[in-house]
Structures are given as structure tokens and as C-alpha cells.
Amino acid sequence: MEESLASFHSTLMTIGENLEEDAETMEDLFTDIAEVADGLQRAYTFASSLQLKLDPAHWLFDYTVGLARTLVGLGDEKSQKYGADWITRVENYAQKFEAQDMQKVVKAIKDAWNRGQKHSDEKEGDGPDRKRRKNH
Questions:
Q1: Is it the case that residue 132 has pLDDT exceeding 70?
Q2: Which of 129, 108, 127, 111 is nearest to 119 (CA)?
Q3: Which of 6, 81, 95, 114 is deepest in the core (most CB within 10 A)?
Q4: Is 37:79 a contact under the CB 8 Å cutoff?
Q5: Are 115 and 100 in contact (CB under 8 A)?
Q6: CA gap 5, 12 in Å, rounded
Q7: H helices present in 1-136, as ranges
């Protein structure tokens, strides 16, 4: 899982060089992301089934953040919301046990789809200047 997550980030960085190859690469990437998400879900299910008094996020934090970062990196709102769903699983853990920098990363991932929505609203004329334009 760790190698897959690292590979996703490097793949996303190289997209845009060849459109034909990029389409095939993205299709493979989506399949691989789905497999990692499925594996991570199984890991959460297993960890929860142990009924320990320890949050599964203690073991699965890095993987969850990696998956969420990848999903946000895809750039579309649906993927970003899915990334936010994943990051909510580790949000409480991050606030209690992670450094402030990592807490900021978790918050940024969780709020990424909101920033994209606000940006598109402003492009469509629903931003803060909308009232000013209507009055003039």
C-alpha cells in the first residue's frame, strides 16, 4: 500500500506530457486508487474488529492521509469530497497526537473541495463582488 501511494503522487506529477498515454495512465491510476481504498477499508474493518481501546488511526494514519492526498490531487470535486471523507477518519487522532503542521495538512485536505467550490462560485459570479456588481 505504501509503495502504491508513493507511486500515485509521482504519476500525478508527470501527467500532461502525452495525452494518449495520459488517458491510459489515468485509467490505471483510478483502478489502483480504488484497490488501495478497498484495502484500507479492510484494514479499518479488521482493526475495529479487534475491539481494542486504541483508535485504528494510530496504525492507519499515514496510509489514510496518503490516500486522501492522492484523491485531492486528482482535482475534481467528487474525488476531493471522497478524500475529505477518508480524512475525517483520522481527524481526531491528528488533533490529539500529531504536530501542528500535520494538523494543518489534515484540515487542508478536509477543506479542499470547499476551496474548489468557492473558486468556481466566484468564476460564475457568486463571489463576494456579486452584490457590488448588482448595485452598480
A1: no
A2: 127
A3: 81
A4: no
A5: no
A6: 11
A7: 2-14, 19-49, 57-74, 77-87, 91-97, 100-123, 130-135
Average pLDDT value over all residues in the chain:
85
CA distances from 83 to 37, 47, 99, 125 (A): 10, 20, 21, 27
> How do residues 5-14 score in pLDDT, each as one tens digit?
888 878 888 7
Give me the helix-helix angle, 57-74 and 2-14, nearest 10°.
Answer: 20
Q: Which amino acid is at 94?
A: A
pTM: 0.80
Give the 3-state secondary structure of residue 68. helix
- Residue found under cell 500500500: 1
The type of residue at 57 is: A
Grid coordinates belonging to 39: 484495502
Q: Which amino acid is at 100?
A: Q
